[in-house]
Amino acid sequence: MQIILSECTVRDWHLDDAAALAKHANDRRIWLNMRDAFPHPYTIVNATAFLSTAAAMQPRTWFAVTVDDQAVGGIGYTLHDDVERIAAEIGYWLGTAFWGRGIMTAALRAVTAYAFREHSGLRRIYAVPYVTSTASAHILEKVGYRLEGRMRHSVIKDGKVLDQFIYAILRDEAMSTGHAADGDVSDRRH
After folding, report:
1. Distance from chain centroid for Cα 100
2. Would you give the distance in Å from CA 40 to the centre of its chain?
3. Secondary structure of residue 166 in the 3-state scheme
4. Where is 78: in which H helix or E strand?
5. Least confident piece of the model among 59-63, 100-104, 177-181
6. pLDDT(50) > 90
7. Which of 13, 66, 128, 137 could bridge across to 164 with cysteines, CB 3.0–4.6 Å?
8. What is the pLDDT of residue 181?
9. Which distant-in-sequence residues (6+ apart) come within 8 Å of 105 by Cβ?
10. What per-residue confidence (pLDDT) applies to 176?
């Protein structure tokens, strides 16, 4: 998969993204806003292991965010099963050198539209940023995700118990805001 946007390109991860991934992911400021499965420090070994997992995914739902074909961030969604099979959780990160440029807003808008197009049974995509991640909450709001609530004392990160926001967008909301046409999408599955 590849979505070409004016701010960035969202594409499948490649095994040769390891060095760029380790470089941009190895930042405590990023780690503080991620799940503990996202390691810190982030080494080339971590990058290689992640890329092997991403390459084997079916369907692929984890993508690189690139600038000048260098992986500078990641975005992905997790499809659910059982009674929650109509929902997916989305998450993302971006190297700090690229913050404040509208890159993740564009990527989130495009991947939201992509997920709804690719998965006809998907009705809802949601995100659960920590309340300390105000930039992430702002990005979600700019893309049209709605704040549905605050989950009190729902996570522990870096030894601190934190609240999380829950933001979501429904299929009809995403389609009515024009997300369905975002980006030049090509499907280059291997």
Report:
1. 16
2. 18
3. strand
4. strand 70-79
5. 177-181
6. yes
7. 128
8. 47
9. 7, 139, 142, 143
10. 83
Would the pLDDT of 190 be above 50?
Answer: no
The pLDDT assigned to 179 comes to 56
CB 147 within 8 A of CB 165: yes
pLDDT of residue 166: 98
Task: Reply yes or no on whether the pLDDT at 149 is more than 90.
Answer: yes
d(CA 38, CA 54): 14
Give me the CATH topology for the region 2-186: Aminopeptidase (3.40.630)
CB 128 within 8 A of CB 165: yes
> Is residue 17 within 8 Å of residue 69, measured between CB atoms?
no
Looking at this protein, which amino acid is placed at residue 86?
I
Residue 176 near residue 116, CB atoms below 8 Å: no
Cβ neighbours, 10 Å, residue 59: 9
162 in Cβ contact with 131 (< 8 Å): yes
Q: Please check whether residue 73 is in contact with residue 93, taking contact to mean a CB–CB distance below 8 angstroms.
A: yes
Question: Please, where are the H alpha helices in the chain?
Answer: 18-25, 28-31, 44-56, 103-118, 134-143, 171-176
* Every domain of the chain and the residues it spans: 2-186
